[in-house]
Amino acid sequence: MAKKSKKQQAGGTPATVALTAAGVEFTVHAYEHDPSHPSYGEEAAEAMGVSPERVFKTLVADVDGALVVAVVPVAGSLDLKSLATAVGGKRAAMADPTLAERTTGYVRGGISPLGQRKKLRTVLDASADTHETICVSAGRRGLEVELAPADLTKLTEAVSAPIARA
C-alpha cells in the first residue's frame, strides 16, 4: 500500500484527508460508478476485482435514539439485534437516509466510516480481523480506500463485534 503525500491529500475526501493526517498507510481505488447498479458495495467489489468478503459497506443505524455506524462485508447483511447488543442497546433500526447523510456529511452509497462531519460510535464486523486489508468507502460513490482493519478500528475508535449475517 502506498502512503499518500500532502499533494495527493489536496482535493481528497474528508476520509482520505483524515487518513493522511493520521499517517496511516492506505490505497485509493477509483472506479466508474454505474447509477443503475443495484448494490453500491457489490459494484465496488466487482469493479476492483476484490472479494466481497474484503469490501465493507458503511451503514448508519439508530440504536435507542442514537446514530451508530455499522461496517459490514458487502457479502452479507447487518444483524440489527447484534449491533444493538454490541453498543449496549436494546433496539436498532436503519437510520433515516436523509439524517444519515446530514450527520455524516456524505451521500448514501458514499458514506465512509472515516472523516464524518459528526463522529459517530462505530462497530466493525469481527470478520474484518481475518483480512490483512479491507476496503471501505473513501467518501464518494466510485471511490474506495484499502487499509488494515486495525488502522480503521483505531481511527474510528470502533468496537469489533460479530454484527453481520451471511
What distance separates the N and C termini? Answer: 29 Å
Count of discrete alpha- or pi-helical segments spanning 4 or more residues: 6
Major sheet attributes = 5 strands, mixed
What is the strand tally? 10
What helical percentage do the residues reach? 25-40%
Strand fraction equals: 25-35%
User: What form results from the Cα inertia axes?
Assistant: globular
Summing up helix and strand content along with how strands pair, one would put the structural category as alpha+beta
Trace the largest sheet across and list its strands. 5-2-3-6-9
Please compute the radius of gyration using only Cα atoms. 15 Å
Taken in chain order, the helices and strands follow as HHEHEEEHEHEEEHEE
The overall pLDDT average reads 92
Could you list the spans in which at least 5 consecutive residues all have pLDDT below 50? 1-10
